[in-house]
Design goal:
1 helix, elongated, single chain, mainly alpha
Length: 51
Amino acid sequence: MHMGTAHAVQDKRAQTIERFRAANPHRFTHAPKLPEIPQVAYINQPEEEAA
């Protein structure tokens, strides 16, 4: 996410999923794992230059 909000959004998602999981334990066989936040994200990834 842009503007440095990725960790805050990820934390909010984790809280939301945990609340849902606590309210509906029969719907989960194991704890969900959120995807990791990528270090770099591109719209158009620059091509590697040949040496």
